[in-house]
Amino acid sequence: MDDDEKLPVHVGIIMDGNGRWAKKRGLPRSMGHREGAKNLKKLLKYIYTKNIKVVSLFAFSTENFKRDASEVSYLMQLIEKFCKDEKEEFIGQRVRVVFSGSSNNLSQNLLKAMHELEDATREFSDKILNICFNYGGRNEIVDATRNIAMMVKNNEIDIDDITEELLDNNMYNKLPPLDFVIRTSGEMRISNFMLWQSSYAEYYFPSVLFPDFDSREFDIALSEYSKRKRRFGGVVVDEKENN
Ligand code: FPP
To answer: What pLDDT is recorded for position 37?
Structure first.
């Protein structure tokens, strides 16, 4: 697709279907996650050839702790390895990596790997990869509300200073609004993913499972996005002309 004007600035991907990918092949769920991680590395390289500024990934929700301990531990190791193995790649691509979520229940080794990746890429600003890990969208809004309540309590701001912009500035990371959210595997839910940032996002639910969501599928998704007429609560220009 050549028309950069129709590219989303901020794309979110809910990487769903790893477990089903593995089950279909008679493999343990962890092998689906391994394949998902392999696919993610290739997919990101492809996305970086496009003029897309921010990518947000849903990698682990706060609710995912309800899964079997062995699956949780596999996912924790996978993300830690990803942070270490991909560090040079992100530096080479000049991508700033940030994490959104809570540090509760994460090991010191994992937190160290996450912070090292954030620190190593902090100077970049053209492209951002936001990894939602141990993340819940409602919780993000609660945390922002707590920060703001504390500012009021400390007389740093008045109640009248509480605006959408202030809430926006108190999310885990300062990011532009989501334009486009893709959830693979055919599930049509948002599952607590970036609720604040997705107020006017376009959604796309391809049936393909995440390990099979490749560059071709991503191009199909972008072409679907380019056909959407975004209204932001208003009226699109060509509709106005027809009425
Ligand atoms: C949902 O599929 C997927 C996850 C909970 C984990 C996503 C993780 C990856 C793609 C691994 C790589 C990520 C990073 C950042 C290294 P599911 O297990 O719920 O699939 P199912 O619905 O088919 O069971």
So the answer is: 98
Residue 154 falls within a domain, yes or no?
Answer: no
Cβ of 179 closer than 6 Å to ligand 1, yes or no, is: no
Tell the burial category of 60 from Cβ atoms under 10 Å away from its Cβ (0-12, 13-18, 19+): buried
Q: What is the pTM of this model?
A: 0.94
Encode 105-125 in three state secondary structure.
CCCHHHHHHHHHHHHHHCCCC
In a domain, 144, yes or no: no
Residue 212, domain extent: 10-136+178-227
- pLDDT, average across residues 22-32: 98
For residue 240, being part of any structural domain is answered with no
Asked if residue 89 belongs to a domain, the reply is yes
Whether 16 lines ligand 1, by a CB cut-off of 6 Å, is yes
High-pLDDT (> 70) share of the chain, %: 95
Overall number of domains in the chain: 1
> What is the C-alpha to C-alpha distance for residues 8 and 178, in angstroms, rounded to an integer?
8
Q: Which amino acid is at 239?
A: E
Place of tokens 């604040």: 196
- Dihedral, 71, 81, 216, 133 alpha carbons, nearest 10: 60
Which residues are part of the catalytic machinery?
A: 16, 64
Would you say the CB of residue 48 lies under 6 angstroms from ligand 1? no
